[in-house]
Amino acid sequence: MIGLPLVYLIAGAMFAAFAGLSLGDRANRKRFGNAAFWGLVAVSFLLGDHLGDLGNGLLVLALALLAGTAQLGVGAPATTSPGERQDLARRLGLRLFLPALVIPVVTLVGTFVLKAATLHGQPLVEAKNATLIALALAAILAALLAQMMFRQPPVAALQEGRRLMDLVGWAALLPQMLAALGAVFAAAGVGKTIGDLAVAWTPVDSRFAVVAAYCLGMAGFTVLMGNAFAAFPVMTAGIALPLVIGRFGGDPPWSAPSACCRASAARC
Amino acid sequence: MLTLLGVAVIVLGFALRFNPLLVVVAAALTAGLAAGLSPVEVIEAFGKAFNTNRYVTIAWLVLPAVGVLERCGLQERARLTIQALKGASAGRILLAYLLLRQLTAALGLTSVAGQAQTVRPLIAPMAEAAAETAGPVTDADRERIRAMSAATDNVGLFFGEDIFMAIGSILLIVGFLDQSGITVEPLHLSVWAIPTAIAAFIVHGARLLLFDRRLAPTTEARP
């Protein structure tokens, strides 16, 4: 059964290629920093499950130190000039949109097809990860299609990918780092402490104050952590369960995800 | 109480503009040590969580495809296409994108669009081009349009995906409430995500239309 490991393998290969191309980019003064950073990301994707928790932790420390000491530069592989792009845009016309649309369309169709596909009576892919697998497939197809349709040199996709990756830089890992921070906060009991404080400070006799504390707490914690995955358990255990639901009889399906609070995860 | 120092490190670190990756690691260490964990235990907990959350970083797989298309003039083509449209404005384009993003996310198609997949190659250049049809755009406004494009994607995703009942956030809510002895149906949670989604559409949609008006005077005031 195909699952996330295959997607991680593809991502690892891509980051390894970025690292290799960065290393050979003599125009980038900080090429060793870039190569080390994307190389470590590649190691995480390729070998993360074999490194052990401490190994992964040290890898993260190294990534943060590389980023924090400004070791990353911006590579500038040879690309087309703005003028050339204008000409290409006029010459290639609407065909340019085709590979761009391949990404959402293949992801969409792939999600449903892959979920239903079976091989020897076994599901072909892990159903819960069908979208991510379809996305990886779509990304590869779109890159190949664009290269063939517009006759680009073979290394163009990886070089252009590296150009964009360097523009994003260390920020590419921030969402994943914040998700990991949420887990550490949970282990350290940050949530329980905040819940206790909120209960101590909220006028518990006022329904409005209780609901407002729940909603504002969710919003504030979500802003802080970059997503609501850590905020939901904290605020719900701290305020919603004892007060909104327990004391004022809030209806869980309505009060948990709605009002002004959600537990979605914005990934960017 | 001391574990809250971790939260303080995040707030201060971001406010003082230290490198965010360092701030996150420092916050994790602070909270963990304050809770009585050893440094090695904190690093292990962080490494473990980092490893299990790798899927978050998968979206960058589209960069090679987006890069080749940019090389061939995709952003310029997106601009040309919008310039041919009458009545297009930055706010209206983003409003249409907000609706599309919320609807697809509500169907569980969260990875169909995104910052890397659609915002940078298509939506932001289109919004910029639409603003340019009204007059020259200053560099500051150009950055504002890009930021609003990115924000619109976030709002659409955030307030659309909970309508799909098999999304991680809904499963988290169901699982957490179940541990607390409250049984809820994922479908009920999804249904009650709809009013919030509509409210978010109205609020952000209004922001987008006001955004057009804010862009207009500065562009028209220029010779």
Mean pLDDT across the residues of chain A is 84
**Percentage of residues in helical conformation of chain B:** over 70%
- DSSP helical segment count of chain A: 12
Q: Which structural category fits the helices and strands of chain A?
A: mainly alpha
pLDDT < 50 stretches of chain A: 257-268
What is the compact description of this entry?
The complex is a heterodimer of chains A (268) and B (223). Chain A contains twelve helices and two strands, in the order αααααββααααααα.
Tell me about this structure.
The complex is a heterodimer of chains A (268) and B (223). Chain A is mainly alpha-helical and 268 residues long. In chain A, 68% of the residues lie in helices and 1% in strands. In chain A, strands 1-2 form a two-stranded antiparallel sheet. Chain A is globular. The two termini of chain A are 30 Å apart. The model of chain A is unreliable at 257-268 (pLDDT under 50). Chain B has 223 residues and is mostly helical. Chain B is globular, with a radius of gyration of 21 Å. The relative contact order of chain B is 0.10. Classes of the chains: A mainly alpha (268), B mainly alpha (223). Chains A and B meet through helix 1, helix 2, helix 3, helix 4 and helix 5 of A and helix 1, helix 2, helix 3, helix 4 and helix 5 of B.
Quickly list its features.
heterodimer, A: 268 residues, mainly alpha, two-stranded antiparallel sheet, 12 helices, 68% helix, globular, disordered C terminus, B: 223 residues, 10 helices
SSE blueprint:
The complex is a heterodimer of chains A (268) and B (223).
Chain A: H1 4-23, H2 31-47, H3 52-68, H4 82-92, H5 97-116, E1 118-119, E2 122-123, H6 130-149, H7 156-168, H8 174-188, H9 190-201, H10 207-225, H11 231-245, H12 252-255
Antiparallel strand pairs in A: 1-2
Chain B: H1 4-15, H2 20-34, H3 39-52, H4 63-71, H5 74-83, H6 90-106, H7 115-132, H8 139-158, H9 168-179, H10 186-220
